[in-house]
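Please decode residue identities from the backbone states below.
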């Protein structure tokens, strides 16, 4: 027998999700792309600078840093 309306947990979950959509969205923290890697002064992986301010390819090719990667980091004001 077909049902006109859903009942039970599925309907409750659908209603909960609709309620979430009605809530205002909180501002997400600002994020930027940062360059991480190791240097002779500090062989542990650490923050080298923001992408655009430092060039990860240049750092690696020059040998100034190794294990270089670009990661998304939260900007702390």
């Amino acid at each position: 027998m077909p049902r006109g309306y859903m009942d039970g947990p599925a309907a409750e979950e659908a209603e909960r999700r609709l309620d979430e959509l009605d809530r205002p969205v909180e501002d997400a923290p600002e994020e930027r792309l940062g360059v991480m890697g190791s240097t002779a002064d500090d062989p542990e992986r650490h923050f080298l600078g923001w992408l655009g301010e430092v060039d990860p390819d240049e750092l690696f090719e020059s040998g100034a840093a190794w294990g270089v990667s670009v990661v998304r980091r939260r900007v702390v004001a």
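Observation: The chain has one domain: 9-74.
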